[in-house]
Design brief:
Blueprint: H1 3-6, H2 15-21, H3 23-43, E1 45-50, E2 53-57, H4 84-109, E3 111-116, E4 119-127, E5 133-141, E6 144-153, H5 155-159, H6 162-180, E7 195-196, E8 219-221, H7 228-234, H8 240-249, E9 253-255
Antiparallel strand pairs: 1-2, 3-4, 4-5, 5-6, 7-9, 8-9
Length: 262
């Protein structure tokens, strides 16, 4: 989940305000709570719980007399050189046409089904009054959902057309493939060290940082670190661009510093 969503308390009292300020965030929060309720219903009763383990049983069932924690197991991390870049390019090339078709269909009808090696990925584009949207993706399985993901989309992203939406779809396919075939990816590459904006960067003239320009390597928004009025403006149409720029000047973005300053 995005960091700015974590900054909202999990309480019903906040939901009406969240729907007004950021209806997309409110949708994600509501859907995730429903997914949690479904998982709890499928699991039934909790007979025992410990660090890293839980024993479930059918509703109304009798718990075992002797509940013992399982023996510790070691999970081997992927070994060998990292193949993240190669695997990314392989999957992107294999699914490019399917993703482009799915992105166009999503923008046109609001729904699309994408073929993946793990099965059909059902996607919905849920739009809201302020121009934002949520990409709601689910991979169904024989016993319910095998995974559901939500991606918040700003108005600017939707204006970029199907190409930008296709990038989000490939991200879903990459995530599924990493979970299913970790051996084909190897260990993850090292994460770039990020610092608070501006981090040594100077935006080009006539560009608003975060809005229509970010440095190479991208920028991660951190509205959760900003004052309340900035978080409100961040999700408000027309004034959000000014909030993005204010955040840039006050450490509200995480960026990789230029090579010369490292």
């Amino acid at each position: 989940m995005r960091e700015d969503l974590r900054s909202y308390p999990r309480t019903v009292a906040w939901m009406p305000l969240l729907k007004l300020v950021s209806p997309a965030s409110a949708y994600v929060r509501r859907m995730e709570e429903k997914e949690d309720d479904r998982r709890r219903a499928r699991r039934g009763m909790t007979y025992g719980r410990g660090r890293g383990w839980t024993v479930y049983g059918p509703p109304g069932g009798e718990p075992p007399r002797d509940i013992r924690p399982p023996a510790p197991t070691r999970h081997r991390a992927p070994q060998g050189p990292s193949r993240w870049a190669e695997r990314h390019h392989e999957l992107e090339a294999a699914h490019r046409e399917e993703l482009e078709r799915g992105a166009e269909e999503l923008l046109r009808t609001g729904e699309a089904t994408i073929s993946t090696p793990e099965g059909p990925l059902h996607t919905r584009l849920v739009r809201f009054w302020n121009g934002t949207a949520v990409l709601d993706s689910e991979l169904p399985g024989a016993k319910g959902s095998r995974g559901r993901a939500f991606t918040l989309l700003e108005r600017r992203e939707l204006k970029r057309g199907p190409a930008r939406l296709a990038q989000h779809l490939i991200t879903e396919i990459l995530s599924l493939d990493r979970k299913t075939h970790p051996d084909l990816w190897g260990p993850p590459p090292p994460e770039p060290e990020r610092v608070a904006s501006p981090g040594g960067w100077t935006p080009p003239p006539s560009r608003r940082p975060g809005w229509n320009w970010v440095p190479p390597g991208g920028a991660v928004p951190r509205p959760d670190l900003m004052p309340g009025w900035v978080r409100f403006a961040y999700h408000t149409p027309f004034v959000d661009r000014f909030a993005f720029e204010w955040m840039w000047d006050h450490g509200g973005w995480e960026v990789a510093p230029p090579a010369a300053s490292e």
